[in-house]
Design goal:
Blueprint: H1 2-17, H2 21-33, H3 35-58, H4 60-64, H5 67-90, H6 101-106, H7 109-119, H8 123-137, H9 145-172, H10 179-182, H11 184-202, H12 204-211
């Protein structure tokens, strides 16, 4: 059980290091609202990650043999990511150092974390693929009700730990980030739109067949 927990923790933490939309949002929340709010955002993301990883792990054998379901999940993220990306792009640049307290309090990092994590349908195919890979390469990796829960718990805590790391580090150096602070919303919007475009390219044949 401990092995599965630590494995999930390490895999999730390392997998979350690469810059992505959730990492950028953790940075954005930390810079504009502080580390405490960034931790709340990270906790919300971890809650949804727990559910997504649970689905991916529990149904890994079933879903790995039905790739059309995984493709549908990935393609469903395209319109969601495009809409979210456009919303972030349309936000006016704001200076976190001059933003008033009332405006900051109107922002809800927990809700933001829940919504963005739910929109990230790519998480389920990711954990399906990683579970199948682990089954193939590690003899000790077996998922039961006893070992599955510690693994998924490690996954959610690993994601949360990585996002908190991003939040703490970005808050410490926010005064040195210059224009990045002002245009963080556009950076996040670009990341969302970029991922949507990548998924369009990946599933271009299916999309073209629908259109034509």
């Amino acid at each position: 059980m401990l092995t599965h927990f630590l494995y999930g923790l390490v895999v999730s933490y390392l997998g979350s290091i690469a810059p992505g939309v959730l990492n950028l949002n953790a940075i954005d929340v930390s810079i504009k609202q502080g580390v405490r709010q960034s931790i709340i955002f990270s906790m919300a993301v971890a809650c949804i990650e727990f559910l997504q990883a649970s689905i991916g792990v529990s149904f890994s054998h079933y879903l790995s043999q039905r790739t059309h379901i995984l493709d549908a999940l990935e393609m469903s993220s395209i319109p969601l990511f495009l809409i979210i990306g456009i919303v972030f792009w349309l936000q006016k640049p704001s200076d976190p150092n001059t933003e008033n307290t009332e405006q900051k309090n109107k922002q809800r990092p927990f809700t933001r974390g829940i919504v963005l994590s739910l929109a990230n349908m790519l998480a389920i195919p990711y954990w399906v693929a990683w579970t199948v890979y682990s089954f193939a390469w590690f003899d000790w990796f077996q998922i039961t009700w006893i070992t599955g829960l510690p693994f998924v718990l490690g996954v959610s805590l690993g994601t949360m730990s990585c996002l908190i790391t991003y939040g703490i580090l970005s808050n410490k150096i926010k005064h040195h980030l210059g224009l990045i602070n002002l245009y963080m919303s556009k950076i996040i919007g670009t990341a969302f739109i970029g991922i949507a475009c990548m998924q369009c390219i990946k599933h271009r044949e299916t999309i073209f067949s629908w259109i034509f």
